[in-house]
Amino acid sequence: MGPTRKPNVCRRLSRRALGFFSSDAGAVQRTNLGILRALVCQESTKFKNVWTTHSKSPIAYERGRIYFDNYRCCVSSRITWLLSRLPVYYQRNSQMEEMPRTSVASEPRKLYEMPKCSKSEKIEDALLWECPVGEMLPNPSDYKSSLIALTAHNWLLRISASTGRVLEKIYLASYCKFRYLSWDTPQEVIAVKSAQNKGSALTRQAGLPQPVLLYLAVFHVLPFSLIGILEINKKIFGNVTDATLSHGILIVMYGSGLVRLYSFQAITEQFMQQKLDLGCACRWGGTAGTVGEAPFGIPCNIKLTDTPPLLFEVSSLENAFQIGGHPWHYIITPNKKKQKGVFHICALKDNSLAKNGIQEMECCSLESDWIYFHPDASGRIIHVGPNQVKMKTYPLLLHLDGWLKKNLIFWMMTQNKRYYSSQRQQTKLTFKIVDYEDELDLLSVVAVTQIDAEGKAHLDFHCNEYGTLLKSIPLVESWDVTYSHEVYFDRDLVLHIEQKPSRVFSCYVYQMVCDPGEEEEATNRS
What we know:
Elements: H1 9-17, H2 27-41, E1 45-55, E2 60-62, E3 65-68, E4 73-76, E5 81-83, E6 89-92, E7 95-98, E8 103-105, E9 110-113, E10 123-129, E11 146-151, E12 155-160, E13 166-171, E14 178-185, E15 189-194, H3 201-206, E16 212-220, E17 225-233, H4 234-237, E18 240-246, E19 249-254, E20 258-263, H5 264-271, E21 281-284, E22 287-290, E23 310-315, E24 321-324, E25 329-332, E26 342-347, E27 353-360, E28 370-373, E29 381-384, E30 388-392, E31 409-414, E32 419-421, E33 426-437, E34 442-451, E35 454-463, E36 469-478, E37 484-490, E38 493-500, E39 504-514, H6 516-525
Antiparallel strand pairs: 1-39, 2-3, 3-4, 4-9, 5-8, 6-7, 10-11, 11-12, 12-13, 14-15, 15-16, 16-17, 18-19, 19-20, 20-23, 21-22, 24-25, 25-26, 26-27, 28-29, 29-30, 30-31, 32-33, 33-34, 34-35, 35-36, 37-38, 38-39
Helix pairs in contact: 1-2
């Protein structure tokens, strides 16, 4: 088989301009992303650190927007490049020559800044909502992105992602403290989870049991409509330590490592005491008010009186449990401390262990490995260790054969010579973050090289299908392995958020630049 022909960006642009793809829905978008991928991975493309900032409050990133001060301030991550307008001359060989005009990165554009608020009104958690396809929405503003935010005083807000204006607001309740937001069904159903009920100091001193562990408030989004608020009660579920909702499944966890799954729809149909509608008058427990408005809020209308039908249960170390693959499989670690780092892949339908389904990695390091189903829904499994990244797959997917084929690894990145030393320094390379950029179909890997006490990181782009290294981007800032790090690769942008001790947060923004001058200079040198 001959060498693969390198895609030509100019040819793709010409074909797009002539409309060669107009008959195929979505083809123009795919062509655009193919062009962008080629630009990102070509040799002359650089990613430059165009902006760095620091903050005393957490920094968050969502789809091209950087949030500061508990989501109160929002700036665009796209940095505008300004071309120097005035010519600059210098003397060369007794003649004045014009220097090449340089581009300078300006400050990022502030999208909005909400008014200052008290500590009780600050936003504690948020999710970005984007318009779903195929649904008719009541207002034109609903077709634009919104930030769904949870405040410290139990208000659920829908905020315009462009202007910061509050579009909708719901008062949740006064009987518990809601703290966390998550998607039950992405972009359709949200779950608002309360903090765990520890009881008052007096009840704890008296040794009185607290039967209710937490509450889960579940809503359809845009427009907001209430499904219900579910009470997680220890009298029903036993000595439960945590619970969450995902894809219509109530997941209940226990201190022993046991994980149990229940159908949330079945629970709602069987145990909902009363259907509640936001904005409607309601009488509950002798008190009247409007659902979703202060001070009445939303009563807890789903209270279990009996154990619901069990869908599935499994025991796993530290409650680690995930489902994926084709057909459905799950990954657990046997519930024994000495089994830490050993992963079992089992069929969901009958709990049978897949052939060659015990996976472990030899790690000559204090850092542990981790494993997960590939987010591209291909059914593959990514296994990441300190010095290895393995991609494994199932054979005969179309025939629903769920066995792991022995030694079938699509690709593997390895740093074999992990340690080398001289009289002056000792170097160690480890993989820290592995993520998937779905639009460009690239796997991004953060690798850190530790030279003595200082760490330097680089972000590598690999072909998602074959694992070929396509691009490596050095990060200019030092990387301290004891700090918390997040790295985002979003089309032509790389963003690194770092949390240092004493709650100091730093944000480093890298933007793609194509520098033809550097390419010409390299050509002239050769």
